[in-house]
Amino acid sequence: MSNLSFKFMAFFFKFRDLFTSPVKILEQIGIGPGWNVLDYGCGSGSYSIPAAQLVRPTGKVYAADIHPLAINEIQKKASMKGLGNVHTILTDSNTKLPDASIDLVLLFYVLHDFKDPNAILSELDRVLKTTGLLAIIDHKFNNDKVVSTISQATKDLKLRETGNGKKRKTMLIFSKEP
User: Fold this and answer.
1) To 10 degrees, what angle do helices 22-29 and 48-55 make?
2) Residue range 49-73, pLDDT digits in tens
3) CB neighbours of 84 closer than 8 A, spacing ≥ 6?
4) What's the rounded Cα separation, in Å, for the pair 51 and 103?
5) Strand order in the sheet with 102-108
6) Where are the domains of the chain?
7) Among candidates 177, 167, 169, which has minimal Cα distance to 146?
8) Which residue stretches of the chain have pLDDT < 70?
9) Where are the beta strands (DSSP E) in the chain?
10) What sign does the dihedral 16-64-137-48 (CA atoms) show?
């Protein structure tokens, strides 16, 4: 992705977030103080920054992206808001996070872009706690395609619930527990 494309995407996300509140979506999941969250494919931070505010100083948010501009943008936003609980990861799959260290993985609007979804989803499964959740919203894949993609990559994650989104956007929640 070029720098111009990233800047256009960041502008679009600001506009999108006026109509779909990231905080409300995160609250629907039940995110709370002390949670460790991985926002994989974080982009400009539409969900990373609100997540950091919701987990408070006792929790951590890891904002991971393949694009250096995304990492720089998140670092600037976190610094401006005084959020010391945001940690950035520049990666195309390996997060280098410890096994079973994450309560919630956010995979919002990026699954359709993965060149090797199995490698990335295996990594996300590895870092999730046994009680952890994987929340997915994808505007280009329908629910069946999302479930199929997850089940091909890992047998550990099972569809737990489908959150009601507005119009086309549906949030799917996966967990290791039945």
Assistant:
1) 50
2) 999 999 999 999 999 999 999 999 9
3) 57, 78
4) 12
5) 86-90, 60-65, 36-40, 102-108, 128-137, 171-175, 158-163
6) 3-175
7) 169
8) 1-2, 4, 6-19, 164-169, 178
9) 36-40, 60-65, 86-90, 102-108, 128-137, 158-163, 171-175
10) negative
Q: Looking at this protein, which amino acid is placed at residue 159? A: L
pLDDT at 35: 98
- Domain 3-175: give its CATH code: 3.40.50.150
Nearest to 112 by CA among 103, 123, 120, 104: 120
Q: Record the tokens describing residue 176, joined without a space.
A: 């290791």
Separation between Cα atoms, residue 43 and residue 30, nearest integer Å: 22
Residues 6+ apart with CB under 8 A from 162: 143, 170, 171, 172, 173
